[in-house]
Amino acid sequence: MSSMEQSASTTANRNLSPDVVVVGAGTAGCYAAATVANAGYDVVVLERKTEEEAGHIACGDALKGADAFPEAIPKSRIQSAFTNTDVDHGRFEIPQEDTVLEIPVPGELAVIDRWEYGRKIIEGADDAGADFHYNTVVQDVVQADDGRVTGVKAMSRGTPLSYEADLVIDGAGSLSVLQDKVDFSNSTFDTNVNYSQFCSAYREIVHVDEPVEWSDALVFKPTERAAGYLWYFPRTETEINAGLGFQMTEQPMQLVEDLKRDLRNRPEFAGARVEDKLGAALPTRRPYDSAVHPGFVAVGDAAGHVNPTTGGGIAGAAYAGKYAAEQAIEGLENGSLDEATLWRYNERVMDHYGARYAALDVYNILSTAVDVDDLMGLLAAMPGDKLAEALYSGSTDIGMKLKIEALLKSRGHWGTIWNLYQTKRRADEIMAHYENYPSSPAEFEGWQTRRDELMETVYETTGADPKY
């Protein structure tokens, strides 16, 4: 449907009643919508951007798990957005130690053109039968007397719209405004969320005349302050996604200047042309304890589904959309989209990647309490394969041989090494607990109480201030 046709349609039909409303045409929203539509149900995707701008999202463009996407949108549909499939490792630059670490990355990796990818997943969901309403800003969420979400209210080019649906899928991104509008008091939905658990990200697309030497690597570098890191991800040999991520508690302009300074000081970027500057927010926290409420489910960034150490979230968001949609289909077939029906979505997320992300968040917590020079010294002493395990699996084996070698190489950062070893044990305990995520809402409170007890030991071990 064209923008003009859509505008006429929505003006004529101010009250719409699809089976499912998806808010946000990002990865999670598109895969959710395609899955629902493929099953023969009516699904509408509400997107605040214009049809031309939809899919244009600030992102690092690195895609881990490129070989394993849900089938609701065929991989062949998005393949043209994969601009660099030769990347096979990370390159971690540590100026404090005059060291460059080469870190293998497990699984298939690609760097993509995020806007092209965004357009392709929208096309894929549209082909499946999803109905896209662009220029549509959700302003409120409608609830029944018993608390069940029954739809949303929106505005499109000055026209108020009302959408009544059996399920609302929140794919509206980090710190979603929809969650400010819902009364979650009678459900398990996680409300222990605040801006300090998120980071801001900023990126530019940089064009250079000569191919960069590291076109087969994702380049990371700590900022001059302890607040974040810089990245250089090669879309091609001459087109680089250059950006940085930093906690929302930091001053953004000071950190953006760190990126600009580093760009000026790298000879490969001399005379470079910069375009397409964008910023965004993303979670640097554990996944939501529960992302379901009667008639409502959150997916992707809106539910904390991002690797909190790398910021990677595309593949996880795609699967979150799939899992949420499959529970929606079950509920539509059974005539109930209550919390118990949607609960299986929580379980599948935790089983797939949520437990790992919760464990990785423990290392994020440690980083807030450790001196940056000590931390960089320790990283410089760690073998690349062990760092890769820690970054992507949430745990790694720190045997006696490695501990002795690290002590010898890290020039006195012994206290940090001991702290890391203890923290690793805490992370393993957290992961094991999440791997036993409850099978029903009735068991949730006890699980959450035990998790909070484990988190107290994390704070005691790391010396960090409580994050939640």
Shape: globular
Total beta strand runs: 20
**Low-confidence runs (pLDDT<50, min 5 residues)?**
1-12
- N-to-C span: 44 Å
Fraction in beta strands: 15-25%
Helix share, percent: 25-40%
What would you report as the Rg, rounded to the nearest angstrom?
22 Å
Secondary structure category? alpha/beta
What is the spatial order of strands in the main beta sheet? 7-6-15-16-17-14-18
Overall pLDDT confidence:
89
Largest sheet: 7 strands, mixed
Secondary structure tally, helices: 13
List keywords for this structure.
single chain, 468 residues, alpha/beta, seven-stranded mixed β-sheet, six-stranded mixed β-sheet, 13 helices, disordered N terminus
